[in-house]
Amino acid sequence: MSYMSVPESAESVNNLELKNRNSASILLFLTLLLPSFIPAEGFTLVMLFVCVIMLALHSFNIEWCMIRLVMPLVILALFGLSGLVFNPIMDFIKDLWYFAKVIPAICLGYMLSRSISDVLIISKIIVIAAVTASLIHLLQIAMNPDVMSLSFKLIREEITKGYYICAIGIATLFACHRLNVSLFRSPIFYIFLSIMSASVVLSFSRNESLILIIMLITIYGIWNISSLKTICLIAFLLVLVLVGVFAYCGNGILIDQPRSGPDTTFVGKAMGSLHEIIPSDYSDPKDIHTNWRGYEAYQALQSYSEGNALQYLFGQGFGALIDLKLYILLGGKEMRYVPITHNGFPYILVKTGLAGLVFYLLFFLRILLLSGKYSPVSNTNLIAKWMTIGLSLSLLVSTLSISGLFNKSSLTPLVILLGAFLYLCRNNYGSPNYWRKCEASTNKTQL
Question: Could you tell me the pTM of the whole model?
């Protein structure tokens, strides 16, 4: 009996691990899709529920590595708690949600990846989720063919603004292709690539296109560079080139395309992207409308500058509102005081001050240090390295235009995947000092 108990026990453990992996795979697929189709507040409850499920599957063991990774964001959120004393309670709760929901999203991805523990399975899930979202997008267009005769702005209003997971799906396919790893057979590869590409093109989204460019440059540009200084230099040059191109074209030197009004074109909007987000005090109503993101960012900086020395350092707290100095129709309501801006950097300054901004940047710097400095132990795990760097840069750059980590729901799949690939880095990379410290202090904590 004693000889038979060992294989039986091993078989039962393997079956349990397989069951957990299958459950986690389904949950990852759903959490990559749902943010685009259900209210953001409802999805936050879903995330918390799934996090509890994943903790239960692992006997409520929490890895210190996961806690240490999100610690800068936890500290960042703590700076805003002073708003509970000074600001209206409902505005405080809304800001607290914007900041705090990022933490369970990263932890959710980390714990799902912990159960799956296979970069190729996760890559397949990403592509299948992206193809599903793309098909839904294309089906919406097919059911309303008349919209294709409208301007790109009306198409986005009538159908959808697209799904960022589609850009990540394309990047994942190319990452695997770069290593000659076949996630799918050749015909399926090209069919999936065509479907996702069509969705990205028809989304007319500047941010989605920029994220795809960043991901592809990460995969094909810095994949074989081991020096962190070189990686940071290339990232800086990439941003500099994009800024230069947008600034050059945005002034109408290369292309003169309308950026506002009924004749607005996608090229015009794209070429004026940088000008649109630069904080500036516009007085002409037409300029304010055309460069709305820059105008509201300027007003946010004005609100920040009106604070005292302590508020410069730690912000005005959650619930602090930004005075736009005019009434404007936002979300169907006329508003003068708003809780959030498209540009996430002034938003962070108003709510959590200079200290909060430092911890926000520190969060991304630590990720780039961990994922960029060390070589993976196997070739396929390069995918985890590329995706972690690409997602980090994408979320950081998107902070300028759509609030980055604090975006209401569109970027939630990217945040979840960042957590997932961070686990793969922790699990499959050589043993960087950071991970060794985690394991030395205690790999897990029992609740």
Answer: 0.83
